[in-house]
User: Which sequence fits this backbone?
């Protein structure tokens, strides 16, 4: 321990310059005590991974837990419902009994590059029913989005319009979608437009109310900027109000699309004819419970996809501003 | 009738309706500012400094009194009185360049597209922010955002530059850097400036006149002291002068002796 020996370390030459230093046996001055250097250990640096390997690793890390969970659930379900006396079909039974439904979802659907048609009535695959439901949702939801955003901006911007309309909206939004069905049928007489109206009336409330909240909470700072720059109403609308409201607007649009999907299934169950709701009702009436289970999985996946699409659109538009 | 100054506030009284009746924020403020003069408004929180600045900006309507700029009455907001806001107020969905561009588009009537872009970049260079032109405000530090806020304001070629506690939210070192930016701009552009501050050193260092306000409600101008330091100023040279020390002392005596902070009095 040469460095700790006071006779060798505390020489004036060693402390010159103010840095901690020590003298070795050979009289060489090093800037730090030797043992401190010796004590220092360096972790070996791992070789950098190929980006593809790193990418695959991170995907696996996020997807693997879900996969494992699904496998565990299926195994548990199989264990619970595997016995012949079970009232609920096991996953294997679903696979066997609804094989046709699972394997041929596009039966009766004609999709080409330039045309698209679903066979009218008769034997249509589950995807055909889902597409029918989706087309209804798309129309009803689009109308709700446009009118909802417009009304939301109106009541968000004008105190008078807010006082006049908000109580009405607050009452109407609590009406369950199916309660509108008799009225809708009475007005439109036909299944298709009344289903579309049902989607519209279900999806519009969250769009209106969230858009209005977005407009009302535009920070005073942005309003002041607009005033100092003397923006005209059109510029204020496009440069300040719309971009500032987009996040709220898309919160409403996301809730709206989820509610539309909930409502369409219920409406089709009651109304009959076509659509995924009808498919469920039909399979229940035919005691094909395994078909119902397949339909539930389809509904869940499509609903999830719709939610992702709207949320993705919101992020893109919010960023583009 | 006497000739009015470039910016003239005459008997500005601002009252706000509240549940407990009328609240008088400002009581008959008279203030004259010459062209090219830098005036700092200082006072304790709640003394109505911001209200006064907002009145000049046109964001608050005075209950009584009038504001004249270059002989004309001012009663609505406009780009000839650019504001540097305390919270910078950049629009987060626009880039730095687009934020300044929005202001330039509203004020650069005769310029074509290329000239406007040059003018935006020129002003960003003045505050040393040209390198961040394509960034969004969310990617910038507080000091950088305020630099852009200043660039946006001066890019409008305002007749009066209003600064509402522009560096209040910044740390001491960043604030000093921004003060240097403002001194540099003042040396180049010789704007007429009305700045609100809480900081005695900032007021004395930057301003030609420090206007001290009494405590609200019904605040008035308590004292108006000229700071006769030569321009352009340099921080290190200025702080060692007798004039700096005297002006600083006068402001501190006003704020902490004659008009102590009502909050600390109560404590």
Assistant:
């Amino acid at each position: 321990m040469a460095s700790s020996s006071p006779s060798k370390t505390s020489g004036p030459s060693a402390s010159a310059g103010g840095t901690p230093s020590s003298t070795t046996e050979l009289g060489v001055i090093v800037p730090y005590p030797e043992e401190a250097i010796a004590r220092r250990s360096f972790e070996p640096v791992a070789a950098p991974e190929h980006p593809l390997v790193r990418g695959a690793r991170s995907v696996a890390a996020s997807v693997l837990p879900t996969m494992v969970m699904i496998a565990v659930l299926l195994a548990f379900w199989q264990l619970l419902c595997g016995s012949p006396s079970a009232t609920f079909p096991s996953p294997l039974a679903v696979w066997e009994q609804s094989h046709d439904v699972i394997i041929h979802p596009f039966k009766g659907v004609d999709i080409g590059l330039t045309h698209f048609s679903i066979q009218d009535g008769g034997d249509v695959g589950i995807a055909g029913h889902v597409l029918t439901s989706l087309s209804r949702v798309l129309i009803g939801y689009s109308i709700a989005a446009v009118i909802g955003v417009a009304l939301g901006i109106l009541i968000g911007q004008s105190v008078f319009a807010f006082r006049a309309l908000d109580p009405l909206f607050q009452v109407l939004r609590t009406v369950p979608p199916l309660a509108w069905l008799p009225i809708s049928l009475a007005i439109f007489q036909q299944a298709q437009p009344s289903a579309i109206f049902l989607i519209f009336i279900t999806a519009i409330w969250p769009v209106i109310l969230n858009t209005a909240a977005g407009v009302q909470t535009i920070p005073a700072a942005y309003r002041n900027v607009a005033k100092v720059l003397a923006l005209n109403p059109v510029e204020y609308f496009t440069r300040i109000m719309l971009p500032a409201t987009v996040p709220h607007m898309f919160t409403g649009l996301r809730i709206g699309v989820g509610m539309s999907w909930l409502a369409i299934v219920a409406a089709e169950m009651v109304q009959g004819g076509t659509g995924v709701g009808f498919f469920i009702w039909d399979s229940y009436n035919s005691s094909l419970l395994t078909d119902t289970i397949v339909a539930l999985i389809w509904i869940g996946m499509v609903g999830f996809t719709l939610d992702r699409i709207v949320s993705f659109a919101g992020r893109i538009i919010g960023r583009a501003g | 009738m006497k000739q009015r100054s470039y910016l003239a506030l005459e008997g500005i009284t601002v009252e706000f309706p509240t549940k407990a009746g009328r609240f008088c924020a400002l009581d008959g403020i008279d203030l004259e500012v010459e062209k090219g003069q830098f005036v700092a408004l200082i006072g304790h929180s709640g003394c109505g400094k911001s209200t006064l600045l907002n009145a000049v900006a046109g964001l608050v309507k005075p209950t009584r009194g009038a504001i004249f700029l270059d002989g004309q009455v001012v009663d609505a907001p406009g780009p000839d009185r650019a504001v540097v806001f305390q919270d910078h107020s950049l629009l987060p969905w626009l880039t730095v360049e687009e934020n300044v561009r929005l202001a330039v588009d509203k004020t650069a009537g005769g310029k074509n597209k290329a000239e406007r872009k040059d003018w935006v970049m020129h002003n960003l260079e003045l505050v040393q922010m040209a390198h961040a032109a394509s960034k969004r405000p969310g990617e910038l530090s507080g000091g950088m955002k305020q630099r852009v806020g200043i660039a946006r304001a001066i890019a409008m070629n305002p007749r009066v530059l209003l600064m509402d506690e522009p560096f209040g939210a910044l740390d001491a070192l960043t604030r000093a850097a921004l003060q240097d930016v403002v001194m540099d701009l003042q040396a180049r552009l010789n704007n007429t400036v009305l700045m609100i501050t809480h900081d005695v050193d900032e007021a004395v260092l930057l301003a030609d006149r420090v206007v001290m306000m009494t405590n609200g409600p019904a605040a008035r101008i308590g004292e108006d002291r000229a700071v006769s330091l030569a321009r352009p100023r340099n921080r290190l040279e200025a702080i060692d002068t007798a004039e700096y020390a005297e002006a600083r002392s006068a402001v501190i005596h006003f704020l902490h002796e004659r008009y102590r902070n009502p909050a600390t009095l109560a404590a």
